[in-house]
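Re: the request from the purification team.
They wanted to know what the chain is likely to look like in 3D before they choose a buffer screen. I agreed to run a prediction and write the result into the notebook, where they can find it.
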Amino acid sequence: MKKPIHGKRILVVVSVCVLIAAALGYGYYLGFSRGSEVTKNITIQGVTDPQKNDSSISFQEFWNVWNILKSKYVSKDTVGDNQKLLFGAINGLVDSLNDPYTVFFPPKEAKSFSDEISGQFGGIGAEIGLNKQNQLVIIAPLKDTPAERAGLQAGDRITRIDDLDTAGLLPEEAVQHIRGREGTQVTLTVIHNEKEGEKKVTITRAIIQIPTLDFKMINNQGKEDLHGSIAYIKLYNFYEKAPQLFQQAAVKSILLGAKSIILDLRNNPGGYLDGAQSIAGWFLPNGTKVVTEAFQDPSQSQSLFSEGPGVLSSKPIVIIINKGSASASEILAGALQDNKKAVIVGEKSFGKGTVQELLPLEQGMIKVTIAHWLTPNGNMIDKNGITPDISVAESTSTASSTEDVWLQAAIKALHN
């Protein structure tokens, strides 16, 4: 099975707390142990107490609070819902990690999340995440989607979803409010930059089909030209079709006599790790380090190496990235940059360099961050991103401009 960076992993990528399965368990099966000084057992009706698993931790205070809420809270109907209290306790445990990618999904949200990662869903077509200030942002609008057509851009901060304030909202929670039936509308209040201030964007939801790759030969002016010397490959994601489609593009570039390659990863939010590793194999000699997966236990950490033919490794390569390039995009760009096989042009990437694993629970599911990604030189991608060799400021490439300044910078880099 594929190993994703964002989506599925071996058991699926995105966030979970294994501790919950052991400490809180299934359904009403909640953890309980005696404190070192308090020996009284408290029995909660409707809840089963497991054996003590960790002598350094007591659940006594938890049960004290549980009892206080049950006996004192003003709304008996609210506090009488044991299932809701359980899910709230699990959410609190997960939230204590302060990791936006580690999330508990109750049954309803779990189904919605499963639908989302299946690749076709009703929504606006934008990857949502958190910036370094834990603010909700557009990581990347996807090609030919309502989000792109509405003018949303990578880095746009979302302050409201309809009438909902997004302060403190996790990406998965935001998705639940943004998604909906095809043909219905959602209004996002966004800030592209502080000078412009807030603006409202109303978007009609649609069934989102995620594009993968575009290929064309271009000349030194950046114009499409079958007899041009530059193979331009625009990769939109690293999902299941990416390796096969990239192979076709690589073969075309060779057959058409491409002397150099431009790989455009702008607004590519990532996908499967296997996709990044496979595509890296076209640019790197066999056996070259691509990335290191660093776990909590160093003995479990492992490096992944290129396994492809490396037939493009002798050609000049330029990769274009921006702040919408994340996850697998950053792994590929970092691998080629560290191995001195490509020049990176653009702006610093998003900085999403963690691995999540999605695990089913008896009720719902949970996804947990289990590892960090390190570039071949040992640089952590998460929160740092990939720094380009040649910077192209966002202000130099505007929506109103007919010239792609970033592409022109990439072409120039090929000839330097």
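For the purification team: Residues 4-44, 397-401 have pLDDT under 50 and may be disordered.
Please add any questions underneath this entry.
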